[in-house]
Design brief:
The structure holds two protein chains of two kinds. Chain A is an alpha/beta fold. Chain A contains eleven helices and ten strands. Chain A has two domains: 180 residues, Rossmann fold, CATH 3.40.50.300; 72 residues, no CATH class. Chain B is globular, with a radius of gyration of 21 Å. Chains A and B meet through helix 7, helix 8, helix 9, helix 10 and helix 11 of A and helix 9, helix 10, helix 12 and helix 13 of B.
């Protein structure tokens, strides 16, 4: 790929475990093991596509990596620093480098704020730049996300689904992160809009050298955007490898099940040849 | 317009003719459906493929006369077994909905009652339509739940909605929808919130019920891949109009309308990933979804179309028969 694509992983997860204690008297002492000793690594400038069924722990892993949940045990090494060992104040400094984008942009954006206010808020929280600089930076990242500056005064309700997801991407970019955690960012969008957002993400990865954890249940999309694919099943990472290897020689039954149940519309090749 | 198709399906279960539906806007109303025609045969599955703003959810709501306030059915006919749903009285509609014509909606968690057990919720559909005693209803509920939960119907009956997974909730909705053995099911993105393996299971269930009970299905989705091994025919909606309609294999594997072709190209290849080049830009449809409030004389897809011609600006395309069963509304194919 490029010089960033070295052997050193940008992110290394080691034996990450997350146990949720059930609340209430009835359940006292019972717990749910959402992540069970998960280890994985993502090289800088590459994309790891994380697939798995509902309830397999994909989103829990995303929340732990984005420092929005504290894991029960295990380590998250980002640029050779263990994030789980950091205090709240130190974590704040890391947050700018690890940003998360959510599935439903309609729910992830404050409906009462303008696009400009939404996009510059991370700068305000992190105390970066003067008011003027923040405004300029917001407009610059909106452009990077493919949105016209005129949209800066709009509110999310006035935008289409694709435009809202672009606002969420702009907000994630504003702090110049290294790692983006993309949690099902396409699944609320139409096919033609999905293609536009994927192209934007691929373009941003090339131009900014970003590293992605791309969480999806669409294996075809995982195979398209990923360099590697990791498969989660009931909290366990059952398989990780290069895209070609996973797609052609899946080792684990969970992977084979996912492959089998993905609707293979173009697998026949009929459409591709015709087009 | 649709002449070939109509003749071949004379004994259609559902026959929608020239349906026009609009919503109010500052400019005086925009058309959500503008002249939609199609048929569904008894026991047939019709896939309706459309993106946001294509009018697909409006179509689902219109078929059951459940349009939100403000939505107006301006003209057209919806003939179910020859009787026009649009001419029915409120009382006739109550008889129709849930009994002969059922709707399965997208969000199973919103469609179920939070404090009623699953068995009671399915029983309620029966109570409002059939004069069975309590014991007869219980037996029928057991029977229906047995169809949708072959392994654990007994356990599910006494559960509440929040105790079920997304796929299980969707199965309960299906049980409610088929309780009175309707002739037609309208399913509006019923698997959109489910993961692929659950999606797969729900589609198989649909197929099986349809075979066993001979129910016609209008299956609305934005995901073409779901329809390939599922629907018998596919209808593509764009900007409130039917742009292409025909047997599934023809429409999805050899699409003819420029919109259908562009839409299907957006979907990433599966094994073909290497052929296209992994991480290469996907083909996209340029431009934005049509603004239906602005009336255009010509083709609604013209601004985004790769094959546009001058005539497309001024003349509205009609559906042209490409072969006995496949139609597309594009001036490329003549007028």
């Amino acid at each position: 790929m490029n010089e960033r694509n070295g052997t050193e992983p940008l992110l290394r997860v080691e034996k990450l475990t997350k146990r949720y204690e059930r609340q209430g008297r009835l359940w006292r002492g019972e717990s749910v093991l959402a992540l069970d000793c998960v280890s994985l690594a993502i090289r800088a400038g590459t994309t790891l596509a994380l697939v798995g069924e509902s309830g397999s722990g994909k989103s829990t892993l995303a929340l732990c990596l984005a420092l929005l949940e504290r894991p029960t045990s295990g380590g998250i090494w980002f640029k050779e620093r263990d994030l789980t060992a950091l205090g709240d104040r130190e974590q704040r400094g890391i947050r700018g480098q690890v940003q998360m984008i959510f599935q439903d942009p309609a729910a992830a954006l404050n409906p009462r704020w303008s696009v400009a206010e939404i996009v510059r808020e991370p700068l305000v929280v992190q105390g970066q730049g003067s008011r003027r600089e923040r405004e300029d930076r917001a407009i610059a990242v909106l452009k990077q996300a493919g949105l016209a500056a005129e949209l800066a005064t709009r509110r999310p309700g006035e935008l289409s689904g694709g435009q809202r997801q672009r606002v969420a991407i702009a907000r994630a970019l504003v702090l110049a992160p290294k790692l983006l955690i993309l949690d099902e960012v396409l699944s609320a969008l139409d096919c033609s809009v999905q293609a536009q957002i994927v192209n934007l993400l691929l373009e941003l990865q090339r131009s900014l050298g970003l590293t992605y954890l791309f969480i999806t249940h669409d294996l075809a999309m995982a195979a398209h955007v990923g360099d590697e694919i990791a498969v989660l099943e009931r909290g366990r990472l059952v398989e990780q490898g290069a895209v070609e290897q996973i797609m052609q020689k899946p080792q684990h039954q969970a992977t084979r099940n996912l492959l089998g149940s993905t609707p293979r519309m173009i697998a026949s090749g009929a459409l591709k040849q015709e087009l | 317009m649709g002449r070939v198709l109509r003749r071949s399906l004379m004994a259609s279960l559902l026959d929608v003719r020239d349906l026009h539906v609009s919503y109010p806007s500052a400019a005086g109303g925009y058309p959500a459906l503008a002249g939609v025609n199609f048929c569904v045969g008894r026991g047939e599955t019709l896939g309706v493929l459309g993106e946001s703003g294509s009018g697909k959810s409006t179509l689902a709501a219109t078929l059951l006369r459940l349009l939100p306030a403000g939505g107006t059915i301006d003209s057209g006919q919806i003939l179910l077994d020859g009787v026009d749903v649009l001419k029915m009285s409120p009382r006739e509609l109550r008889e129709l909905r849930g009994k002969r014509l059922s709707l399965i909606s997208q969000e199973p968690s919103l469609a179920l009652h939070p404090t009623m057990r699953v068995g009671e919720q399915v029983g309620e559909v029966l109570r409002s339509h059939e004069a069975r005693g309590a014991a007869g209803r219980r037996e029928r509920v057991r029977d229906i739940l047995g169809r949708v939960f072959p392994d654990d119907a007994g356990r599910i009956t006494s559960r509440y909605a929040h105790e079920l997974s997304g796929g299980q909730r969707q199965r309960v909705l299906i049980a409610q929808a088929i309780a009175c053995e309707p002739v037609l099911l309208v399913a509006d993105e019923p698997t959109a919130s489910l993961d692929p393996s659950t999606q797969h299971e729900i589609l198989s269930l649909f197929r099986q019920l349809q075979r066993d009970l001979r129910i016609g299905v209008v299956f609305i989705t934005h995901n073409p891949a779901l329809l390939l091994n599922f629907a018998e025919r596919v209808l593509v909606l764009y900007g409130g109009k039917v742009v292409e309609c025909g047997p599934t294999k023809n429409v999805l594997l050899a699409p003819q309308h420029p919109y259908t072709r562009a839409l299907l190209r957006c979907v990433p290849a599966f094994e073909g990933a290497q052929a296209r080049g992994r991480k290469a830009a996907l083909p996209i449809i340029g431009g934005v979804a049509p603004n239906l409030a602005v009336l255009t004389k010509g083709c609604v897809f013209e601004p985004r179309c790769a094959d546009r011609m001058e005539v497309c600006l001024t003349r509205e395309p009609r559906r042209v028969a490409l072969d006995a069963r496949h139609e597309a509304a594009c001036l490329k194919f003549g007028e």
